[in-house]
Every structure is written in structure tokens, then in C-alpha cells.
Amino acid sequence: MPRGTIRATVLIETIFGAFEMDEILYELRDHSAGLNCGRWDYIFSFIKKFRERADFVMPDRATVTMDKHFLDSYVRLLIKTCHRRGIHAMGGMSAFIPVKNDLALNESALEKVRQDKLREAKAGHDGTWVAHPGLVGVAKQVFDEYMPAANQIDNKRTDVTVTASDLLRVPEGPITEKGLRLNVDVGIQYIAAWLNGNGAVPIYNLMEDAATAEISRSQVWQWLRHKAKLDDGRQVTAELVHQVVQEESAKLASLPKIKEASELFARVATGSDFPDFLTLGAYEQLD
């Protein structure tokens, strides 16, 4: 086969990868199809790599959206880097999925996807991901309107200047009991589904994968490690985390593997060590 027949798109889903985008494209050269934003794993990597630093403590996961400075900087730098080298800059996956039997919720989900793809198309991305085939039409409609050509590589984004401090600016926001409970709830639900053989799981009308569970457990670990305080003044302690795990898992008691999932979540969220990936311990429980 001619050189360049097989090409790969590299998912930039670690904070260190954001500092080496030029190097990654250079090493692949003729085998590169571009770079891709890996949003949720990127946030997990950000927490994971700087977990020992108190000045890198993140607010509630739900508030860490793509308009935050460190994520917006990462997106703009990826587009500029790719287009300068004449290669595609792919957007990220919107996690929203169609909602059955609820027209209002479904329309809300579709609008959130549309706004997400609109942001990407206007930023200069050449394509994007969706979490469900039912959303392809929404994404295509936006990109057809704002990207009538095959790509936007001619948009070099020469207006963009991104520094290391931009990529490392920690977003501001509250840490709340609701955020703690959501991390525990979703983390346990995902681990239980994973133990039952499902790697992509719809939870609260979002398509979740391991990255969501990783963010959830790493945030709890980070808050506990640095004695973070909730917005009501209470400190995040191991006792509080175990209490929330017990309460949230009780609500999910009818689901298979919940006991194993809650025990694993509690272990990786409150242990003194930080396993690189929570699935390392989960593999031991697979049939």
C-alpha cells in the first residue's frame, strides 16, 4: 500500500498531550489524519496529574464545562496547531443523547447538542463526535451551515495565543453536597454497569464511559486529600464520603453488582494511594 494509506486521528485526552501536539503530528506525519479533543478523559488527566497540589482542586464536575478557560484554551490551541500543519482538528463528543417519551427533555437535549456543535464549528473544527446516531443530523446541520467546504483548514486561527498558564488555569466554582452525591451516584452506577459488561452506559440522559467514573472518583479523592470544604462549610472527610456512598448505593440496590461497585468506588475514592485507573481493580471482579 502507498505510504499514507493508513492514517490515525490522535485523541488528545491528557494534559501532557496538550503540550506536545506539534510533536505528535510530526512523529506521525504521513500517517496522521489529525487531532481530536477528548474532553472527559482530559479533565480526568488534569485532576490526576496534579492531584497532590492543593492549588489544583477542581469545583463540582457539572460546572467544568467547555467554556472554562483551560478547556477553551486547549480547544483553540488544538485547532491552531492542526491547521498550521494542514491537518484536521476534530471536535469532542457531546454526551447528551435523545430522550424517549419526554418531548420537552428531548428537545432540551437536542438544543444542548446543537449549541455544543455550534461552538465547535465557529471555533474552526473540521468535524465532530456525537454520542448517539440519532444526533448525527443535528451535528451535520450545524457543520453544513457553518462549514460549507470540506474542512476549515484555511482558518489558521492566527489570532490565537495560548500559554502554559492558560492550559493550567484551574476553573473557579463551588464544591457542593449535590456535586459530591452526583460523583458517587454516577461513579457507582457506571462501575456496576462495567462489571456487567457494558462500557458505554446511558445515565441521566447522558452517554457515560469510564472517563466519567474516573473524574467522579478522582474528584472525591482530591477533595478528601486536600480537606476541601463544601459550600455549606462542612469539610469533605472519609466519614462523609462513606456515608454518601452508603446512602447512594442504597438507592441503587435493585441494580446488579451494586454492592461490588460501591465497595470499589469507596476504595479508590478514599484510599491513600491513587490507582492510575479504577478499572485495574475492577478487572479482578470480572467473571
Q: CA-to-CA gap between the ends?
A: 41 Å
**DSSP strand tally:** 6
Question: Multimeric state of these chains?
Answer: single chain
Structural class: alpha/beta
Mean pLDDT, to the nearest integer, reads 96
> How do the strands line up in the largest sheet?
1-2-3-4
| SSE sequence, one letter per element | EHHEHHEHEHHHEEHHHH
Strand count, sense and barrel status of the largest sheet are: 4 strands, parallel
Task: Write up this protein.
With 287 residues, the protein is an alpha/beta fold. It contains 12 helices and 6 strands. The chain has helices at 15-18, 21-28, 39-49, 69-84, 103-123, 136-146, 164-167, 177-195, 210-225, 238-251, 258-270, 279-282; strands at residues 8-12, 32-37, 89-94, 127-130, 201-203, 206-208. The chain has a 4-stranded parallel sheet. α5 links the parallel β3 (89-94) and β4. The longest helix is centred in the middle third of the chain and has 21 residues, at 103-123.
Tag the structure with descriptive keywords:
287 residues, alpha/beta, 4-stranded parallel beta sheet, two-stranded antiparallel sheet, 12 helices, 6 strands
Question: What would you say about this model in short?
Answer:
The chain is α/β, with parallel strands linked by helices and 287 residues long. Helices cover 49% and strands 9% of the residues.
Secondary-structure topology with pairs:
Blueprint: E1 8-12, H1 15-18, H2 21-28, E2 32-37, H3 39-49, H4 69-84, E3 89-94, H5 103-123, E4 127-130, H6 136-146, H7 164-167, H8 177-195, E5 201-203, E6 206-208, H9 210-225, H10 238-251, H11 258-270, H12 279-282
Parallel strand pairs: 1-2, 2-3, 3-4
Antiparallel strand pairs: 5-6
